[in-house]
């Protein structure tokens, strides 16, 4: 995915580039700081269970508009409730996935578990949802703010479109705003007198085009929503770096992030509801956990904060070997009863090596343990369900308040069905005509599965009409750029300034059954940033990096 030439650029929180000696020193220090504060991962290339590498990170926090951040935070409890209601709507889940499960074996296997559980009745009516709603700023959404309309390539910028205050604009020096803005910004760098600088600041502020005007949901995760630890840990590193660089005065623009506590407390609330003091919390894990810090810190937080609650880690294969149901269908591992199951694996076909792992999933699903997610929550998090929710009038089925319906409706970008029917065929034709506008997604989680832009026609043509129903088509979101240093294990020293784009994830916790929600809250956030040329930005996968938001105020507030 390459950015268009006129993609807007968000201003930096501090002036870049840094002098080379300062950059070298602070980067080396930040790497050690990251490892020593658990912003780390196991190496995929030189794996050892005995060592960690620091996780790739962005040296200073990336800017994010305060208003949009606050909107996303405020919306999360509504999204939690929406997803909870969707998960409990049997008819909606069944009709929405009907075509998909005919051709997608993985989703069909999950759906089979759902069907069997429905037939026998849910042993445990309470679900624990630990969700993460992922979003990107959309730099070109004229329907919300005509001021943000982007000029066509080669056209002059609209001087009315001002995103930033003058100081920030000058901080964008060296990071270069788009198009015409670039020349003005460069001139600001050379301004010799204070008066000149002041005038130029003003000019820059009037020139940089609006880099954002809304955000759109990329996806909603209902299983294994990661970065509960790495989200807050990213802030810890960048707070340290900003202080080292003499910018402690800016730290107040980095919002608090209690994701780890928020998520772990959610598990403990579910444990409380289960109500047996000796019962344990079970983490379902992959055979090898590269992202180990983002699981162990959850475990350690629970053990340190609630020492009476034991945490176990088991693979699906282990559960198949050791697990059984007791007289009241309680899940037993040896002689330990499981109160809560937290799935950090089980979201991709590779986690199920054989029927044994599917049997283990079914065993857990039929047990009395409270699952995160229960099977219906897992299905509610599929891309197909997200696509169905974005259709007109569908939200009314799940949300009563018209203002809330409007607010949630706005976060969806275009999402299109590829089912084997008239609408699906129209989507197919549209994708062949203008593939560069879209991303094609299967029912998978964990990154690396989507098809982008010009690759879409070939991918679609290889599928039969029926096979297409396993996929959905989505409008490509165009986030504004930021410029900064990305620090990676084995990467260049000193790091180079690169063009990046960010994806914000907002965590939510929701606990309840079909009739009642007993807990519903927003639980912190995470920011992942990738090279602007990369399609996907998985941190462990290689192109993404830990980041955290530096909140900036928009022109609307300034004025
Ligand atoms: P997964 O479940 O594999 O994480 P996502 O839907 O989150 O699937 O897509 C993976 C990545 O692809 C995202 O993190 C984002 O970087 C990119 N991406 C997905 N959808 C879009 C979109 N509509 N526009 C731009 N980038 C997208
Ligand atoms: Mg994702």
Structure description:
The chain has 559 residues and is of the alpha+beta class. Strand 9 and strand 10 form a beta hairpin. The C terminus is likely disordered. Helices cover 36% and strands 21% of the residues. Strands 3, 5, 6, 17, 18, 19 and 20 form a 7-stranded antiparallel sheet that branches. Strands 7, 8, 9, 10, 11 and 12 form a 6-stranded mixed sheet that branches. It has a 4-stranded antiparallel sheet with strand order 13-16-14-15, sandwiched between helices. The relative contact order is 0.21. The site of adenosine-5'-diphosphate (ADP) has 17 residues, from strand 6 and strand 14.
User: What characteristic shape results from the CA principal axes?
Assistant: globular
Estimated structural class? alpha+beta
User: Termini separation (Å)?
Assistant: 35 Å
Quaternary structure annotation: single chain
Evaluate the radius of gyration.
24 Å
Main sheet properties:
7 strands, antiparallel
Strand content: 15-25%
Number of strands: 21
Arithmetic mean pLDDT: 88
Q: Which cofactor or ligand species appear? A: adenosine-5'-diphosphate, magnesium ion
State the helix count.
19
Features:
559 residues; alpha+beta; seven-stranded antiparallel sheet; six-stranded mixed sheet; 21 strands; binds adenosine-5'-diphosphate; binds magnesium ion
């Amino acid at each position: 995915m390459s950015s268009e030439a006129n993609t807007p650029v968000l201003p930096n929180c501090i002036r870049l580039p840094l002098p080379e000696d300062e950059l070298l020193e602070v980067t080396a220090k930040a790497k050690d700081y990251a490892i020593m504060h658990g912003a780390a991962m196991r190496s995929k290339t030189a794996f050892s269970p005995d060592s960690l590498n620091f996780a790739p990170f962005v040296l200073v926090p990336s800017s994010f508009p305060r208003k949009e951040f606050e909107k996303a935070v405020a919306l999360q409890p509504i999204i939690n409730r929406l997803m909870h209601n969707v998960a409990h709507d049997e008819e909606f889940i069944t009709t929405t996935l009907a075509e998909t499960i005919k051709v997608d074996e993985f989703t069909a296997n999950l759906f089979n578990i759902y069907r069997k559980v429905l037939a026998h009745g849910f042993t445990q009516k309470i679900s624990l949802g630990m969700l993460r709603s992922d979003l990107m700023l959309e730099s070109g959404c004229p329907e919300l703010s005509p001021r943000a309309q982007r000029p066509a390539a080669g056209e002059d910028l609209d001087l009315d479109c001002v995103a930033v205050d003058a100081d920030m604009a000058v901080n964008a020096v060296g990071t270069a705003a788009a198009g015409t803005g670039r020349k003005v910004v460069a001139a600001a760098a050379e301004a010799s007198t204070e008066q000149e600088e002041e005038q130029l600041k003003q000019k820059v502020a009037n020139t940089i085009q609006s880099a954002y005007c809304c955000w759109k949901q990329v996806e909603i995760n209902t299983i294994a929503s990661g970065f509960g630890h790495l989200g807050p840990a990213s802030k810890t590193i960048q707070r340290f770096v900003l202080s080292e660089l003499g910018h402690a005065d800016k730290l107040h623009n980095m919002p608090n992030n209690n994701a780890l506590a928020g998520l772990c407390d959610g598990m403990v609330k579910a444990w409380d509801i289960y109500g047996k003091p000796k019962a344990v919390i079970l983490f379902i894990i992959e055979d090898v956990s590269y992202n180990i810090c983002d699981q162990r810190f959850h475990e350690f937080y629970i053990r340190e904060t609630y020492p009476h609650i034991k945490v176990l880690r088991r693979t699906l294969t282990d559960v198949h070997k050791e697990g059984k149901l007791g007289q009241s269908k309680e899940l037993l591992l040896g002689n330990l009863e499981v109160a809560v199951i937290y799935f950090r694996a089980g979201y991709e076909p590779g986690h199920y090596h054989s029927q044994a792992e599917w049997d283990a999933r079914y065993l857990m699903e039929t047990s009395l343990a409270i699952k995160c997610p229960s099977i219906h929550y897992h299905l509610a998090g599929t891309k197909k369900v997200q696509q169905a929710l974005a259709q007109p009038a569908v939200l009314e089925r799940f949300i009563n308040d018209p203002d809330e319906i409007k607010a949630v409706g706005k976060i969806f970008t275009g999402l299109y069905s590829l089912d084997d029917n008239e609408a699906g065929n129209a989507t197919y034709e549209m994708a062949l005509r203008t593939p560069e506008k879209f991303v094609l997604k299967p029912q998978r989680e964990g990154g690396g599965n989507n098809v982008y832009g010009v690759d879409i026609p070939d991918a679609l043509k290889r599928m039969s009409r029926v096979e297409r129903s396993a996929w959905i088509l989505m409008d490509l979101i165009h986030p504004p750029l930021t410029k900064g240093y990305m620090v990676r294990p084995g990467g260049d020293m000193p790091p180079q300034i690169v063009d990046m784009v960010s994806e914000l994830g907002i965590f939510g916790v929701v606990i309840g059954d079909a009739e009642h929600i007993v807990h519903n809250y927003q639980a912190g956030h995470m920011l992942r940033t990738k090279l602007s040329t990369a399609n996907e930005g998985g941190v462990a996968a290689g192109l993404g990096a830990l980041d955290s938001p530096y909140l900036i105020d928009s022109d609307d507030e300034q004025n």
